[in-house]
Every structure is written in structure tokens, then in C-alpha cells.
Specification:
This protein has 317 residues and is α+β, with helices and mostly antiparallel strands. 26% of the residues lie in helices and 25% in strands.
Length: 317
């Protein structure tokens, strides 16, 4: 497999619009969704456990420990969007859905991935994301039209597409998930490539119509996943999408073309419900910058996200 030599692109692509501090970003999430002493975003979720078996091809593109031969345990958390712990699964605001994974090796090492169910991010950088959140915060019921959110979406068409074209899943297990930020993989031959993650359900996607959604309960996704797992395990295929020279590494709002090469990294098999007590959920944290040797952040937004998660974690404990 021919990879992109290290000298062809910078290790870290520099980008504008990353001046917001991690604390400011968490504050903007609270402004938009309220402060509930819970996760600042994706507050409502359900935790499950399983295993991950890496593919042979995975070790060809990275020396990361969880992508070699050894099977690892995984803790996964499916979730709804917003920082509102009581949000209904059937609310339009609950999209995109979240999928976070913690890989745990037998020797105690771990690494995390945080993804969601839309191939792209609403904004190109963290400063714009903060602006979007603050626009949401001031555009609720009674706000004068056009609202701050209306104005923001008018000048940011990608964010408008993100907010208005989401699909409603029949199950957390029946939709694709994406790691929309970019990483740099390096293998044992010191060859490197930029990648984004994809998680595709083994049995394909399945969505509900707007009419069907009006009949769904507040916790229909959690109820469905409990029923599904009681009948047996379900699986996701885990892929790395490889960037071409022309692809935007630093802009998560622009999805790479579907024609880009993908490498299957392995299979995630989800086998059982985990402890979902308030204590268990509050003590579980996924940090996207918790990375092993062989994987580096490439999108500058990831460094800010990685610093924001511990702030939110501290607030909920």
C-alpha cells in the first residue's frame, strides 16, 4: 500500500479561526443548551460494551497499538445531540447522534474516538462553532425575526445544511457514524497518511419518516438498543478514509469525496449493556486527543476539543 511520505505535507496543518479558548467553547455550549451539571453536549446517552478486532491492513498504515493484531475491549456510548439530559430521542434537536468508543488493551493502555452521524461538521473552525452556539442561545422563543441564528445560517450555508438535512434513525445501530476531524497515521516504515474515520453498521442504515417520528417515545432509541442487544451482538465496520493531496485536512465542514480510498481497520462487535447508572456515566470520559504513538491530530480543532472535554468532565463531577 503506497502511503503519503512525511515530507509531502506538514505534520500539522495550520488554520485560522482557532482563537477561542476551551473554556469559552464549553461556555457557549452551556449558553445554547443550559447548564445541567452533565456533559456539555451529547448529554443523553447509553453505554454498551464489546470487542474490537483489527484487520491485517490496519497495521500497514499505522503502528498504533490498538490497530495491530491484538483484540481489545471497547466501551461505546451512543447519544443524542445537545447538552440537555432529558431531551427526547424523537426531538429534531437530538440530531446528529453521537458514537464514542474507548479501546482498552489488556496492559491498561487506552485510546478514544468521538464521532457523530453526519459526514461533516457545521463549521470550519472552533471560532465559528462558538458563534453558531451563541446564535442558538439568543434565538429561542420570542426572539425578533430574523434571529441571530437566521443571520448566521444565511452566511454559513454548510451549517444550514447540517442543521436542516439530518435523518432520523430507527436505531442507534442502523446509521453511519463519522469522525469528522482529520488524523495523521504513521506506520513502522515511517510512512504517513491523513485519514478520517467511518463506522458503518453491518446491516446497513434504516431511517424513519417525519410521520413515524411523531409516534416514537421519548426514549425509543434506548429502548430499541436494549431490545436489540438482548437478542445478540451487532457490529460496525471501522474504516479509515484516506485523503488525497487536494483534500482539506484542516476543515471538518468539508466532507472528502466518497471516491477516496478506504482501508478497513477492523470490526467493532457490541455485545452487552454496561452499567448506566448516573455515577458510571459521569465518570466515563472520551477525549479525542487521547492518542497512541502512530496517530496524531491533524485538524487544529481536535486540540481544542481535547482540552475542552476535561473541563466539561470536571463540571459534571
Amino acid at each position: 500500500m503506497k502511503l503519503l511520505p512525511m515530507n509531502k505535507r506538514d505534520i500539522k496543518v495550520k488554520a485560522e479561526g482557532q482563537k477561542s479558548s476551551p473554556a469559552e467553547l464549553v461556555g457557549a455550549l452551556h449558553a445554547a443548551f443550559g447548564e445541567h451539571h452533565a456533559r456539555a453536549v451529547h448529554a443523553k446517552g447509553i453505554i454498551l460494551e464489546g470487542t474490537f478486532k483489527p484487520s491485517r491492513e490496519a497495521s500497514e498504515i499505522t503502528k498504533a497499538f490498538h490497530l495491530q493484531k491484538e483484540t481489545s475491549k471497547v466501551i461505546v456510548r451512543f447519544s443524542d445531540f445537545t447538552g440537555i439530559p432529558s431531551i427526547s430521542d424523537s426531538s429534531p434537536l437530538a440530531n446528529p447522534r453521537g458514537f464514542a468508543i474507548k479501546f482498552q488493551m489488556n496492559d491498561g493502555r487506552s485510546t478514544d474516538i468521538v464521532g457523530h452521524s453526519f459526514n461533516g461538521f457545521p463549521t470550519a473552525n472552533s471560532d465559528q462553532f462558538k458563534e453558531l452556539l451563541l446564535a442558538i442561545a439568543t434565538s429561542g422563543e420570542g426572539a425578533e425575526s430574523p434571529t441571530a441564528l437566521d443571520k448566521f445560517l444565511e452566511s454559513h450555508p454548510i451549517a444550514k445544511t447540517f442543521l436542516t438535512t439530518q435523518k432520523n434513525p430507527s436505531s442507534y445501530a442502523s446509521m453511519n457514524y463519522f469522525g469528522v476531524n482529520s488524523f495523521k497515521f504513521t506506520n513502522n516504515d515511517n510512512e504517513s497518511v491523513f485519514v478520517r474515520y467511518q463506522f458503518l453498521p453491518e446491516n446497513g442504515e434504516d431511517f424513519l419518516s417525519k410521520d413515524q417520528m411523531t409516534q416514537m417515545g421519548n426514549d425509543y432509541l434506548q429502548d430499541e438498543i436494549r431490545k436489540r442487544i438482548s437478542k445478540g451482538a451487532f457490529r460496525f465496520q471501522f474504516y479509515a478514509q484516506l485523503a488525497a493531496e487536494s483534500d482539506k485536512i484542516e476543515d471538518p465542514s468539508i466532507a472528502w469525496p466518497s471516491t477516496r480510498k478506504v482501508v478497513q481497520l477492523g470490526i467493532i462487535e457490541i455485545e452487552k449493556i454496561s452499567d448506566n447508572s448516573t455515577v458510571a456515566d459521569n465518570t466515563l470520559v472520551f477525549i479525542p486527543s487521547n492518542l497512541p504513538e502512530g496517530i496524531e491530530t491533524a485538524d487544529p480543532m481536535l486540540d481544542l476539543r481535547g482540552a475542552a472535554y476535561p473541563i466539561s468532565f470536571k463540571e459534571r463531577n
